[in-house]
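Human: Respectfully, please carefully check these tokens:
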Amino acid sequence: MSASAFTELASPELIAKYEPVIGLEVHVQLGTRTKIFCGCPTSFGAAPNSNVCPVCLGLPGALPVLSREAVELAIKASFALRCNVRAVSRFARKNYFYPDLPKGYQISMYDEPLSEHGYIDIPVETGLKRIGITRIHMEDDAGKSQHEGFRDSDRYTYVDLNRCGTPLIEIVSEPDMRSADEAVAYLTDLKQTLQFVEVSTCDMEKGHLRCDANVSVRLKGTEKFGTRAEVKNLNSFRFLKQAVEYEVARQVAIIEKGGRIFQETRLFDPDSGETHGMRSKEDAHDYRYFPEPDLVPLKISDRWLGEVRSTMPELPTAKRARFVESYGLRQYDAEVLTSTRAIAEYYEEVATVSTDPKIAANWVMGDLAGMLKAADREIEDSPISARHLGELVGLIVRGELTGKLAKDVLPKMFESGEAPSVIVEREGLRTISDSGALEKIVDEVLAANPKQVEQYKGGKTTVIGFLVGAVMKASRGQANPAAVNELLKSKLS
């Protein structure tokens, strides 16, 4: 949203008098093969109303059966977000009417959620800030409505019920965020963590992660919260930031003019960068929650928790800290290399095989990443295996291949998938370290460059760089640079 739009709402000076109070409700689609209460597939992009059955259509007499896979993924999410999993939780019916909700209610959890009391630490200017997580509960998704036309005479709504019954978790934060940037940092960490433990793809374009933002403002120094508005269905980090900033400016302007904020649900319009009122905000009693009569309470034993915990990978924050401490990487490099689980695991194998974690990091983040980007491929689809890249870096570390020649070998590995040793042997690219062979090349270079030899002997020692380059060129990049340097100095002195 443009700065002029902010000025029309509230000036930066007025906004600075207030403190935003922000909490997020994040809906995450679990990465199951089937829906939460039936065997219908969760595949994206199927023909409308094809992935449905009597259970997810809410037909009379159809009974839900809870997916064990969905529960285990929800438990993994709870562990990853440091929540305490309850021994007993209970599903409830959340009653409301909407065209894409055929049952007339959503199966969710109310006062007995799956887990509670977790947190995420986000980076802020002063270090780390802890954002509390109130609860995580499971529920089924509604369908999807697509609206077309603007005039009443030609306005149509199409309903696709494929998404009905898709397994979700809702992650409800404490109102601990105080800026749009903090909200974005929280959602970024949440998404990365859930992807890392393979709970969900969190593909926001496919609706696998959606966010509702509860926003209110209060004068700085005031303890009492203001009246909040909920901005629904934000499906990108950019939209979250824009929506929160607009909503803060809107509320401040109303309060400063003597107006009153009403608790309501609002929608964000990406085209205008504005939020618009949708309906008055419902409270729990509006949904008439009551225990789901067709599902028994969900009981999770310590044994089951232990089984799920044994499948948990190292979390990204712990992995980052280990990369810095054990491998001597910079914090920034560790963050890049733990941005996804696939990158982190690929890098660790490269580092192990090559025996030099720092050089390995440079090759993964630099040359390989550039090639993958140019080919529009992810690291999971890299034609160069982690072991082969580790072997290439190992050749450099042991002085068997120069860095320059390695950069020539890498594209050939990318194209063929071959091991570096195969390419190096076939094309005769191994580093020349034999003193006799090197001395012959050095002598030829010195004889061909008498001017530079005289300059060096006259005190201009920097000219040795030119001579090293000439030797490298004469050897087609195969000469060992360190050995060349020493040999040149010996002969010139």
The first helix runs from residue 3 to 9. Residues 1-7 have pLDDT under 50 and may be disordered. The chain has three domains: 3-303, 316-427, 435-492. The domain at 435-492 is CATH 1.10.10.410 (Arc Repressor Mutant, subunit A).
